Automatic annotation (TrEMBL), chains A, B:
Signal peptide range: none
Record EC number: 4.3.2.3
Protein name: Ureidoglycolate lyase
Pfam families: Ureidogly_lyase
Keyword Transit peptide set for record: no
InterPro entries assigned: RmlC_Cupin_sf, UAH_cupin, Ureidogly_lyase, Ureidoglycolate_lyase_dom_sf
Sample GO molecular function, one term: ureidoglycolate lyase activity
Keyword set, alphabetical order: Lyase, Purine metabolism
Catalytically driven reaction(s): (S)-ureidoglycolate = urea + glyoxylate
Assembly behavior: Homodimer.
Keyword Protein biosynthesis (UniProt): no
Species annotation: Sediminimonas qiaohouensis
One record GO biological process: allantoin catabolic process
Length: 161, 161
């Protein structure tokens, strides 16, 4: 089984796939008499012409590395943001599109305090926390379509540090 | 100075002010072959006719209890959700509207894993984490208006457990 090494999650490396949501660098503005920094409007949200934004809560089973990745999915009708509700590392796997199928998989380790927003249509693995409680807020499209494509990886790949 | 005692944050108690975002009770659906619960579409989002959803990151100075509350604010043009990115308690203060000014203040302690979505126009205090890092994702209205009203509390009130 081929092995894919994890990379640190950085805004530059992740830009083709989406946005990193974090308090990095100086805030865009200071509010509340200086008591709060605001990193403003950091996600390229896209819910399509017939969708709307929703906030859901996900709680997923923590996984271990090395991790066997056997499925990618994507949401053709909208972006999807994952906001960790705990200060833990977590794993995110993505791939560029190559003619309707995923291209080479990349794996990122999000540091504590880092969320992501996946651009509409980005191939990605299912939510993979590395620690309990595995709790995330998810901002994605609410609409009437299934908004899901799945692509089994055969053979699977191994994600390792 | 009058003293307001904190209450635990529950969906029922908070309903007039907004939504509690949490993985409480059974999930609305199981996804990812059963590895993830989804508590679906839990926020009454409202960005008005001319606004859109945005995700920002806030980092605020932690406060202590008792806490002196001397200002409430509200956003007339949109809802505002606060999603804690750490497993810590935090404080949220709100008030009903009473003819354009805040009515009696209520104070809630959010447990670890609880976020909130404030309904459009809800009077509330500024973001008040009780622990470092004081990091939150905020889903609120992006638009061209100031979308802010402030109301100084004179005299201030004290929030205490």
């Amino acid at each position: 089984m081929s092995v894919i090494k994890t990379e640190p999650l950085t805004a530059d490396a992740f830009a083709p796939f989406g946005d990193v949501l974090e308090a990095a660098g100086d805030p865009d503005l200071l509010i509340n008499a200086g008591a709060c920094g605001r990193w403003h409007d950091r996600a390229r949200l896209d819910f399509g012409p017939d969708g709307r934004a929703g906030i859901s809560v996900f709680r997923a089973t923590p996984r271990d590395l090395p991790y066997r990745l056997d499925l990618l999915e994507r949401h053709p009708d909208g972006s999807q943001a994952f906001i960790p509700m705990a200060q833990d590392e977590w794993l995110i796997t993505v791939a560029p599109d190559a003619g309707g199928a995923p291209g080479p998989v990349r794996a990122f380790i999000a540091a504590p305090g880092q969320g992501v927003n996946l651009l509409r249509g980005t191939w990605h693995g299912v939510l993979t926390p590395l620690h309990a409680p595995g709790l995330f807020a998810v901002v994605d499209r609410i609409g009437s379509t299934a908004n899901l494509r799945e692509f089994p990886l055969d053979p699977p790949v191994t994600i390792a540090r």
